[in-house]
Amino acid sequence: MNFQFSLPAPALSLTQQYMLLRRDFPTGAGEVRNGRLHWRQALQPTPVSRRYGLHMRYTVKSVPEVVVEEPCLLDLAVEKRIPHLYRQKPAELCLFRPARREWSANSPLSMTVIPWSALWLFYFEDWLVSGRWNGGGEHPKPEEN
Question: N or C: which end of the chain has fewer CB within 10 A?
Fold first, then answer.
């Protein structure tokens, strides 16, 4: 018998994640400091969309957090509760389900979280017009603040 074992891929270091972000999103800016990666990125989901300023925070032992810093999504939603957010203010995007391991520390942020953020923003703009969230997924119970 021939048994083959596959070990999980090792986590990408913060420096590796940072370098991949710099390579794939040269218009963004960030730093690695005190065991945490900070990345700011402007995204425009379609050519006719507004531009959004995002701030991503990440440590290797946690999942990435993405907050929309500008514009204020609550202002755009005219104070309606926005679906698919962990927090309404500041707007913290719900991009994947951590409990289902849809993202892991060996996944490049530049190929997952940043593109998922652009897709989330696309569905947000659609929701502003239609009143329906067409992006699928499960809606988390957001914090009130």
Answer: N
Q: Which two tokens stand for residue 5?
A: 């074992």
In whole angstroms, give the CA distance from residue 145 to residue 85: 11
Instruction: Indicate the pLDDT class of residue 119, thresholds 50, 70 and 90.
Output: very high
What is the percent of the chain with per-residue pLDDT over 70, rounded to a whole number? 88
The structural domains of the chain, with segments of one domain joined by +, span 14-130
b/e per residue 62-74 (b: at least 16 CB within 10 A) = eebbbbbeeeebb
With tokens 């590796």, the residue in question is: 16
Distance of CA 54 to the CA centre of its chain: 8
Can you tell me the distance from the alpha carbon of 103 to that of 90, in angstroms, rounded to the nearest whole number?
23
1 secondary structure, DSSP code: -
